[in-house]
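Lab channel / #folding
Pinned by the channel admin:
"Please post every new chain as: sequence first, then the structure tokens as a reply. Keep commentary short and put observations after the output so the thread stays searchable."

First post following the new format, from NK:
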Amino acid sequence: MGSGSRVFPCRASSLAFLVPSFASSNQLSFKSFLTRSSLSPTAFSLHRMASSSSSPVTNDNSIISPAPSSSNDSAAPATPPRSASSAIDFLTLCHRLKTTKRAGWVRRGVQNPESIADHMYRMGIMALIASDIPGIDRDKCVKMAVVHDIAEAIVGDITPSDGVSKAEKSRREREALDHMCKLLGGGSRAKEIEELWMEYEENSSSEAKIVKDFDKVEMILQALEYENEQGVNLDEFFQSTAGKFQTEVGKAWASEIASRRKQH
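Reply from TO:
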């Protein structure tokens, strides 16, 4: 307790509070020693007046207004931020990518076929392990691989066998992507997903060309694995991609897969 302060007990209410003095301090402050529950209504009013009057005082005795109290002082339970709610909503929708089987394999009678998420994951690994290429952003390729089929969480895996035109397929997927970005709450992450998806869809960058090649490479590698494991003939998948690779890494990996297929 400072030597410039004096304590006055209040018998009726058992209230004790500090009365300031300017003799030895240039700061005006009050501190209560008792809780609200121990004060009478009159004493509690005096106590509140004392507590709320705390304001710093300069050497010339001018009073500086106290800072406003923070809203965090409220005893109301904290509610989860909107970003958390949006993220979980978005991720819950993405669960469909884990449970939706790739339609091409289902139509060919492949047992226990991969999901959309399985396909996207290995494409991401491809982008991660590929040798560095001058002018190519590898991190962007990884992100694009993870995003490129994300709209299929809503529209499903539309294949040429479905009789849906390329333009209609793109329209449906774009509409689904817009919905997912809104579900995520907009912002920078939703914008990044949208831009990556559009870049892939339009094949408008060197990274998009590489990831499109990885899409085909992953498919024929999976086809080779199903042929070896289940004894099925999936030649049509190899024929559908022949001569369509745009990059050196895509051509090299496709050639390696074709070479291994001939050995079986």
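NK: The chain is about 55% helix and 5% strand.
TO: also worth noting, The beta strands are 6-10, 15-19, 27-28, 55-56.
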